[in-house]
Write a structure and sequence with these properties.
This protein has 259 residues and is α+β, with helices and mostly antiparallel strands. The protein contains 6 helices and 18 strands. It has 2 domains: 118 residues, Roll (Diaminopimelate Epimerase, Chain A, domain 1); 127 residues, Roll (Diaminopimelate Epimerase, Chain A, domain 1), CATH 3.10.310.10.
Length: 259
């Protein structure tokens, strides 16, 4: 199944392929399937003990440690296919620990860890690759975070992907406050080292963006828009050391894997 995540409209948000497995499969097979699907993430879901599910995510290039849209899509599939009751919480065991998903008012709430960015000196290669004037540069567990002056500067970024790929991080987030009064901040995300030049709508980056903008704006709950060509909307809410990422999802393709 292919699910568009962080959108309510087909062909928006971020497409994730989701494979439900009856038995364990080896890493090489999952990597090959992900390369075949060529989506930003292919999620592999397998029933586990106690009603939970084992969940792994692969980009076309490598395995991911944390993936929001792949988790959102997986939960959506479990409910839509009847593998999980509509009112039940989806519980996942992942490389980033236990994650949950729950339905609320037409949205799906993900319970994720915070990955805040600490200020760092801007690596010359990063700034050159993005071609921006940075107001702030930070480094989270996974990514560089670069704040620029305004939304127009975020939209205008045209990275040098070869140079960006050499930076020592999963990828780079570029962000600013939003122009739309109904949106708090905007972002784009580039991860060429993982086979994803630009990710259309990214859940895991908001584990970093949420604490950054919550501190900037003095608000625990925020509305974010990823201003890629496909676009995506993520609601965030911080509580303790966790963040609630909320999004919508829609199925666009059903298929059966023969290999």
């Amino acid at each position: 199944m292919v699910v568009d995540a962080f959108t309510s409209s087909p062909f928006g948000g971020n497409p994730a392929a989701v494979c439900v497995l009856d038995d364990a499969r080896d890493d090489e097979w999952m990597a090959l399937v992900a390369r075949e699907m060529n989506a930003a993430a292919t999620a592999f879901v397998r029933p586990s003990d106690g009603g939970a599910f084992d969940l792994r995510w692969f980009s076309p290039a490598r395995e991911l440690e944390l993936c929001g849209h792949g988790t959102l899509a997986s939960a959506h599939l479990l409910w839509e296919s009847g593998r999980l009751d509509a009112g039940s919480v989806a519980r996942f065991r992942t490389r980033s620990g236990g994650l949950t998903a729950a339905r609320r008012d037409g949205w799906i709430d993900l319970d994720f860890p915070l990955t805040p960015a600490e200020p760092v000196a801007a690596p010359p290669a990063l700034v050159a690759a993005l071609g921006v004037t940075a107001r702030f540069v930070g480094r989270s567990r996974f990514d560089y975070l670069v704040e620029v002056d305004d939304e127009r500067a975020v939209v205008a970024v045209r990275p040098d992907f070869a140079l960006l790929k050499a930076c020592d991080a999963r990828g780079a987030i570029v962000t600013s406050a939003a122009n739309d009064p109904n949106v708090d901040f905007v972002s784009r995300y580039f991860a060429p080292a993982f086979g994803i030049d630009e990710d259309p709508a990214t859940g895991s980056t908001h584990c970093c963006l949420a604490p950054f903008w919550s501190a900037r704006l003095g608000k625990p709950e925020l509305v974010a828009r990823q201003v890629s060509a496909r676009g995506g909307v993520v609601r965030t809410a911080i509580s303790g050391g966790r963040v609630r990422l909320s999004g919508q999802a829609i199925t666009v393709l059903r298929c059966e894997l023969e290999a």
